[in-house]
Amino acid sequence: MARSFLSIERLTQQFPDGAGGTMTVFENATFGVEKGEFVCILGHSGCGKSTIMNILAGLAEPTSGVVKMDGEHVSGPSLDRGVVFQNYSLLPWLTALKNVTFAVAARFPKWTKQQVIEHSTAFLEKVGLTGDAIHRKPSQLSGGMRQRVSIARAFANEPKLLLLDEPFGALDALTRGTIQDELINVWSQTEQTVFMITHDIDEAILLADRILLMTNGPLARVAESVEITIPRPRNRTEIVEHPNYYAIRNHLVQFLGQRSKELSGMSSDDIDQRPQSVHIDKTADLDIQADAMHENPRLRAISE
Question: How many angstroms separate the CA atoms of 26 and 30, rounded?
Answer without folding.
Answer: 11
